[in-house]
Amino acid sequence: SSKEHGGDHYTVFDAGMRVLTQRRMEMELALRQAMESGEITVHYQPIVSLATGDVTGLEALARWQHPRQGFIPPSEFIPIAEESGLINELGALILRQSCRRLVELGRETPEGEKLSVSVNISGRQFKRPDFVQEVAGILAETGIDASRVKLELTESVLMDDADEAVRAIKNLKALGVKVVIDDFGTGYSSLSYIQRFPFDSLKVDRSFVGNMNEAEQNMEIVRAIIAMAHKLGLEVVAEGVELAEHKAALSELRCESAQGFFFSRAVPGEELGELMRRNWKPDPGPQVS
Ligand code: C2E
Ligand code: MG
Ligand code: MG
Ligand code: MG
């Protein structure tokens, strides 16, 4: 009977699912082709030292320029890559391209030699048993100094199997790379939980930084995160710095580095030469008493 089979409800649901699956499969196919044809590239956003105003690092951000649909943001294609498993190949492509570009930059200018590159690693990629081996392979193949490579992980990656995550992070660090906790504050983990994992630095999510000067509460959250991170021996990078006031407030809070549209958006690899030599005059920071 129609009741047993859920009646019309299921019929509608099935049709909806079919459309969704169809669209997803199309996106997946398009993504696979995009990876092969070079439509996926890496852009780089500078990370600036608040003490010196110099660019000290770059965050690698995946970009997809579709020939007909135009720019497709990572928030759209990364989840599809994750669900389809394409993320492993995509992640390797991004890491390889980023390391290559950094090695080139080091050859081009003295400034380029000191830069680090931060690469986002998705949960599925990180959890693969041969992930550490793959990173080791890319380091060897590109000849990059491992200490210049930072891998960014989000809190969600650490949740389901903490012991396994600790083991993997230790193995990565044994290769010489740095490990960063990204988007801190958006998940459910406390700093005492984060302490179990041997991170080198922490990125404060831009949702707190974006309006820290207007919302006193956000200023206090950022202050608390920075103070506690420092107690745990972690350097702090603030994301989403859009205004000079954000930069000044973060200097005052002794935040080491910052990243955001105030400095620059992510730019294509070819435009980095000029960007690297820029300096943003440091703020006075906390007054020594
Ligand atoms: P994320 O790792 O937190 O990267 C920072 C995001 O904030 C970037 O967005 C960047 O363009 C944006 N952003 C930087 N400064 C500002 C600012 O001042 N204001 C505002 N409103 N936004 C700012 P994007 O490139 O769209 O990437 C979004 C997310 O997609 C990334 O967040 C990351 O989680 C993911 N993603 C990007 N590339 C990759 C990749 O190669 N692999 C993986 N697994 N994930 C990636
Ligand atoms: Mg990131
Ligand atoms: Mg982030
Ligand atoms: Mg973020």
Written description of the protein model:
There is one protein chain. The chain is globular. By secondary structure, it is α/β, with parallel strands linked by helices. The chain starts with 6 loop residues before the first helix and ends in a 13-residue tail after the last helix. Helices cover 48% and strands 19% of the residues. Helix 1 (7-37) packs across helix 2 and helix 3 (87-108) runs parallel beside helix 6 (131-142). It has an eight-stranded mixed β-barrel with strand order 1-2-4-5-6-7-8-9, surrounded by four helices. The model has no long low-confidence stretch (mean pLDDT 91). The longest helix is centred in the N-terminal third of the chain and has 31 residues, at 7-37. The chain has helices at 7-37, 74-84, 87-108, 110-114, 123-126, 131-142, 156-159, 162-174, 191-194, 206-209, 216-231, 244-252, 272-276; strands spanning 40-49, 55-66, 70-72, 116-120, 149-154, 178-184, 201-204, 235-238, 257-258, 267-268. It contains 13 helices and ten strands. The structure holds ligand C2E and magnesium ion (3 copies). One magnesium ion binds at residues 183, 205-206, 239. One magnesium ion is lined by residues 183, 205-206, 239.
